[in-house]
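pls design
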């Protein structure tokens, strides 16, 4: 499920729009937003232990892939375009979103009044982003890896392209349904937890820490309102909980195998700007 990540870079950790965050942006010995910087060699949180009493992660991922559509239907998707809206709850802020995707590469554009324009793209191994605070920059490290897996049309079907291990780490009851949590992780420290409905197999949620130049930001995403488009089921509504800000993303138009201008995918600015997110 293609997931929009760049919004986090345009708000500070208190959910402030870009112009307020830019005015307050400082970084000293404490690190961004006054947080202590991680010391070299500081141990990272250990991965959740496997639960042998739960269904195998690979089986849950395969079931999710089949629930999204047949192998034949998915194989026919060579490109797509979708348009949607973004609403920041409680702030009376609403914007527009467009995504062009082809063969794993993409260009995304968000226009949000009061915040500005945000763009991101991927062409081959080159991944970039642009927002009003940080400007245009090529991404690297875990931040780039996150944009790479987020650009997957169906992560459940190709998870091992981006991650090394998958394990089922939990079983929960959500609104009367049983949900299984599957944790994907990589040696780099990249990690995401995908949650699947036990009966339908569809992905219902996802959680991870987004890495941005302003630090890490926890994200919980709910996938709702699945509809079938040319044999493929897509969640037309994503509810993104960034702890201090809730964002609702809704699809208003989808075109499968749309004509796509691939020149949009590449980094649009001269120079070679690479800005590393802060450690920790």
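designed seq:
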């Amino acid at each position: 499920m293609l997931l929009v990540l760049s919004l986090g870079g345009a708000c500070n950790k208190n959910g402030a729009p870009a112009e307020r965050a830019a005015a307050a942006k400082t970084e000293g010995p404490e690190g961004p937003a006054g947080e202590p910087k991680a010391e070299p060699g500081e141990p990272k949180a250990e991965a959740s232990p496997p639960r042998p009493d739960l269904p195998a992660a690979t089986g849950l991922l395969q079931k999710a892939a089949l629930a999204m559509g047949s192998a034949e239907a998915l194989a026919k998707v060579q490109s797509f375009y979708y348009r949607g809206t973004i609403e920041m709850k409680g702030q009376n802020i609403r914007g527009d979103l467009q995504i062009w995707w082809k063969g794993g590469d993409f260009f995304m554009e968000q226009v949000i009044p009061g915040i500005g324009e945000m763009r991101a793209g991927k062409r081959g191994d080159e991944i970039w982003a642009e927002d009003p605070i940080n400007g245009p920059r090529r991404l690297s490290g875990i931040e780039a890896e996150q944009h790479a897996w987020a650009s997957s049309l169906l992560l459940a079907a190709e998870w091992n392209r981006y991650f090394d291990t998958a394990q089922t780490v939990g079983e929960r009851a959500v609104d009367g349904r049983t949900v299984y949590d599957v944790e994907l992780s990589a040696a780099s420290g990249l990690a995401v937890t995908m949650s699947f409905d036990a009966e339908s197999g569809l992905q219902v949620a996802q959680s991870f820490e987004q890495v941005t130049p302003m630090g890490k930001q926890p994200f919980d995403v709910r996938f709702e309102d699945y509809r079938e488009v040319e044999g493929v089921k897509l969640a037309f509504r994503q509810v993104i909980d960034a702890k201090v800000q809730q964002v609702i993303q809704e699809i208003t138009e989808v075109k499968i195998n749309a004509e796509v201008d691939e020149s949009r995918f590449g980094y649009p600015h001269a120079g070679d700007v690479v800005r590393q997110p802060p450690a920790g």
